[in-house]
């Protein structure tokens, strides 16, 4: 498999880096650029970043899966892993979901209703 980045992803990643440096990570434009970069990232890159985050113990163990076997994380487990207040993580996720919807990226965060998932533990 050829591990190359699509030009669109590289351009968005550079825009994100520059915007983040100038406006900060919490600025709405920066968040939208991050979402667009994720949406255009190659699958191999997303898998490598996920594996790296797990290896570095930056994300918790998945808590549920859907009917296809895709694993999901609970916001409470993410909050605990990040040492953040669970309500703050819920607010941040809601903000990212709103930004994604505004940008027309409804599926980029791969969220599901907990009632549609099966607990792993």
Low-confidence stretches: none
Tally of DSSP helical segments? 5
Which term fits the overall shape? globular
The overall pLDDT average reads 91
Alpha-beta classification: mainly alpha
* Element string (H = helix, E = strand): HHHEEHHE
Residues in helices, as a percent range: 55-70%
Return Rg in Å: 15 Å
Oligomer: single chain
Provide the domain count. 2
β content, as a range? under 5%
Distance between the termini: 34 Å
What strand line-up does the widest sheet have?
A: 2-1-3
Structural commentary:
With 121 residues, the protein is mainly alpha-helical. It folds into 2 domains: 7-57, no CATH class; 59-121, no CATH class. The longest helix is centred in the first third of the chain and has 17 residues, at 7-23. The chain has a 3-stranded antiparallel beta sheet with strand order 2-1-3, with no helix packed on it. Helices cover 56% and strands 5% of the residues. A hairpin with a 5-residue loop joins strand 1 and strand 2 (71-72).
